[in-house]
């Protein structure tokens, strides 16, 4: 009798389980699946409970698989949506200015000003005293406030402007730094100084003339760089060039004097004017970093420009020099400070351009 009742109970439970399974298949709610299964497990015997538990586990696996797939899909959508949203925000910001949307490099430069009140200036640099060039840049183009806030111009800060200047030392350092990394330049310069003293004091022009070219080359200088430094030392010893002349003359006269010196081209002279003499209106249109930064500032897609064809002379440029000069006119007489931030936009290593370290001066 017990056996028959048990069989009936089992058969009834099987039918109930079958009906529930059919409902589960048609149901789209994971919560309802869990609820029905729990009710069934309570109303059945231990033997049936085992079957119900199996059914519950299978259903849970299906839901879990779908949940995982759904989670992956949502995650992918979330990532794509975030990128799309950021790109959309940048495009909107550019559209407000009536410019073309920025290229892939533009996210490094947020064209939106932080706040109009940022023109109070101390809030930008955290300093009580701010160079008037910063005021001019922000007044001319408030969108520069973001890059100015992120990268204070240490070159024209009060500590930077108070650094001692030795034109001869700076010009020699510039020659040493030509076409090498900042680390390599520092190493060569250290060995060069060691040829004359062990106190890390840069040698005077007359001291350099006591060493021949072969000896100078042992510091790691190329033949031409050793010749350039020797020739420069001769000009200082003869009096054709002096530290006082270079410190007190205008940018035009300094350029006119130095362009005649072997090893000093226009770019090297411009870097000397900017980093050593701290002249405020230097704008090196031939510098690729400045060209790239100017293109980004103008909203150009620099990645597309990267694959453009060279000009007639075969020298590739991010932007024509004439156009750069025209666009930069409004920033005069503080285009040196503009150059600092254009290098930041272009991710240029400014240290290698300085050509100067903490070597002691005589």
From TrEMBL:
Q: Where is the composition biased (Polar residues)?
A: 11-20
Record's Gene3D superfamilies? 1.10.1670.40, Hypothetical protein, domain 2 (1.10.340.30)
> Which residues are the signal sequence here?
none
Q: Which GO terms fall under biological process for this protein? A: base-excision repair, AP site formation; DNA alkylation repair
Q: Molecular function (GO) terms listed? A: alkylated DNA binding; DNA-3-methyladenine glycosylase activity; DNA-7-methylguanine glycosylase activity
Q: Which InterPro entries match?
A: Alkylbase_DNA_Glycosylase/TA, DNA_glycosylase, HhH-GPD_domain
UniProt lists compositionally biased (Basic residues) regions at 63-75
Which residue range or ranges hold the HhH-GPD domain?
176-330
Q: Where is this region: Disordered?
A: 1-119
Q: Which family does it belong to?
A: Belongs to the alkylbase DNA glycosidase AlkA family.
Q: Which GO terms describe its cellular component?
A: nucleus; protein-DNA complex
Name of the protein: HhH-GPD domain-containing protein
Pfam families (UniProt xref): HhH-GPD
State where composition is biased (Acidic residues).
84-94
Keywords linked to the UniProt accession = DNA damage, DNA repair
Q: Which organism is it from?
A: Arthrobotrys flagrans (Nematode-trapping fungus)
Q: Where is the composition biased (Low complexity)?
A: 27-62
């Amino acid at each position: 009798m017990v056996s028959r009742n048990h069989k009936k109970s089992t058969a009834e439970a099987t039918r109930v389980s079958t009906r529930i399974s059919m409902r589960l298949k048609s149901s789209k709610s994971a919560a309802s699946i869990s609820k029905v299964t729990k009710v069934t497990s309570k109303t059945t015997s231990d033997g049936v409970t085992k079957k119900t538990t199996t059914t519950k586990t299978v259903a849970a696996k299906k839901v879990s698989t779908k949940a995982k797939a759904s989670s992956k899909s949502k995650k992918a959508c979330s990532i794509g949506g975030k990128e799309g949203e950021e790109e959309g925000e940048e495009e909107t910001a550019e559209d407000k200015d009536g410019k073309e949307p920025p290229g892939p490099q533009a996210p490094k430069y947020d064209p939106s000003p932080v706040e109009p009140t940022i023109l109070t200036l101390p809030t930008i640099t955290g300093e009580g005293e701010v160079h008037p060039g910063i005021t001019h840049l922000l007044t001319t183009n408030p969108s520069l406030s973001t890059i100015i806030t992120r990268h204070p111009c240490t070159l024209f800060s009060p500590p930077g402007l108070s650094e001692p200047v030795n034109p001869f030392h700076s010009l020699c350092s510039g020659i040493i730094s030509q076409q090498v990394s900042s680390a390599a330049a520092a190493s060569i310069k250290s060995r060069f100084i060691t040829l004359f003293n062990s106190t890390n004091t840069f040698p005077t022009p007359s001291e350099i003339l006591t060493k021949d070219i072969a000896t100078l080359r042992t510091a790691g200088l190329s033949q031409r760089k050793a010749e350039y430094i020797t020739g420069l030392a001769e000009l200082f010893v003869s009096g054709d060039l002096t530290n006082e002349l270079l410190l007190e003359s205008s940018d035009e006269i300094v350029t006119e004097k130095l362009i005649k010196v072997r090893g000093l081209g226009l770019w090297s002279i411009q870097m000397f004017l900017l980093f050593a003499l701290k002249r405020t209106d230097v704008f090196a249109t031939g510098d690729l970093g400045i060209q790239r930064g100017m293109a980004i500032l103008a909203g150009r897609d620099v990645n597309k420009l990267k694959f453009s064809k060279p000009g007639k002379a075969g020298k590739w440029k991010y932007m024509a020099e004439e156009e750069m000069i025209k666009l930069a006119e409004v920033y005069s007489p503080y285009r040196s400070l503009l150059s600092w931030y254009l290098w930041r936009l272009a991710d240029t290593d400014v240290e290698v351009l300085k050509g100067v370290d903490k070597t002691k001066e005589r």
